[in-house]
Amino acid sequence: MTKKLLIFAAALMIFAGCGKSEEEKKEAEQLAAAGVKKVKVLEVTQVSQYTYLRVEEDDKEYWMAVTKRDAKEGQILYYRGSMEMKNFTSPELKKTFETLLFVQEISDVSPVAAQKEAKSAMGNQPVKPELAKQDVKVEKAAGGVTVQELLSDPKKFSGKEVVIAGKIVKVNNGIMDRNWIHIQDGTAAGDKFDLTVTTDQEFSEGAVVTLKGKIALDKDFGYGYAYSVLLENAVALNK
Asked: Kind of pairing, strands 226-236 and 195-199?
């Protein structure tokens, strides 16, 4: 009897392994190598500043908390890094979670799929999309800098927080666990007139915003996406 049970269990394991395609197995390996977890949302609970998610990872269920975001049951999410809290009580929910993961980096886009898309779109000669200089004129923010001032002497601002106002001319959300925007204010340093910005917030193309963030120099994300000047983790001061 025991022998039959062992054979049955082994058959189940083989069958379960066959359920995944080679592509899915490869993706799982790539996600694991990058330290990324893939989960399915089973339950969503919204409070004022957080979204609580009951998720399923393989055959394991657990709760996580993320900065408030739209989420739906059945949605697939990808996250990297977490802080585990034991017996955490939510004052708003009046509920205690035996174990709760606080997650910062989360996205509904698989980094593996995004990487593939980038490769496919860029082919053998990866290049960033060309952006045209728009006819805009945005007043310099109080206590801030202009695109011209920043791009004329970027080393002066390296690692420092700056405030800058501009018009959003391009938006790309959910890439590498962040949103990417390009702003122009009508000024230029030679042929440089556009500033690339990363942020956790969502913005609309055409909006005029005042942003605060930290300047990073010479950031290279691969596939031709290298930036000599980048405004990172920006937040809107006038949103």
From this structure: parallel
Q: For residue 178, what are the β-bridge partners? A: 175
Total domains present in the chain: 2
Structural domain ending residue among the three candidates 61, 85, 108: 108
Name the β-bridge partners of 64: 53, 101
Model confidence pLDDT, tens digit, residues 5-58: 445 444 444 444 445 678 778 888 888 877 889 999 999 999 988 999 999 998
- In degrees and rounded to multiples of 5, residue 123 shows phi and psi of 60, -145
Question: pLDDT digits over 66-120, tens only?
Answer: 988 889 999 999 988 889 999 999 999 999 999 999 987 888 877 766 665 555 4
Helix ranges (DSSP H) in 75-200: 111-122, 147-152
Pairing of β 178-184 and β 226-236: unpaired
In sequence order, the 6+-apart residues with CB closer than 8 A to the CB of 150 are 157, 162, 164, 189, 195, 215, 229
156 lies in which domain range? Answer: 147-236
219: closest CA among 205, 201, 233, 200? Answer: 233
